[in-house]
Amino acid sequence: MPRTLEGQITMEKTPSYFVTKEAPRRLCTMNCRTKLIVVVRDPVTRAVSDYTQTLSKQPGLPSFQSLALKNTSTGLVDTSWSAVRIGLYAKHLENWLKHFPLSHFLFVSGERLVSDPAGEMGRVQDFLGLKRVVSDKHFYFNQTKGFPCLKKPEGSSRPRCLGKSKGRPHPQISPEVLQRLRDFYRPFNIRFYQMTGQDFGWD
To answer: Which SUPFAM superfamilies match (predicted)?
Structure first.
């Protein structure tokens, strides 16, 4: 990390820290006062999105169902598949809470980031002790991608939107498989709501 002067905030982002077992200890060794922002979304939707992204890079990938379930007749979910394992947010948070207090975390709803980007960004700015600068006027809804994008910044010729890998249509997946995943995640989601004090409204 670069040196940070008084009055500056240094940020880094990666989806892998939250689910990497060694990350909390390593980060605390560097600085236990670090503030942590975790964006979470419905773990079923997240798993399908993860699969869709991998499928775009590996077209010969087995079906979602064959990867998500150990056995289709019993419906046993395969937690060794990373797309499934990542959504066990309560388990990952337990690991982090061994090194950081809950007050150091802000949990951002991925769904609300789409439906109310300015509202969620307001929470982020408050959490970081920043003046609220980013507001509704900075976003527009991109119909093609299906989520908000940043409007054109001063001195730039075009708006800022997430890359081609985001906003892809998801493949058709059996409702029974999706329901099996919802049932599987439910107790983990409830535990996560209890731990964070936030109900994300995932079924």
So the answer is: P-loop containing nucleoside triphosphate hydrolases
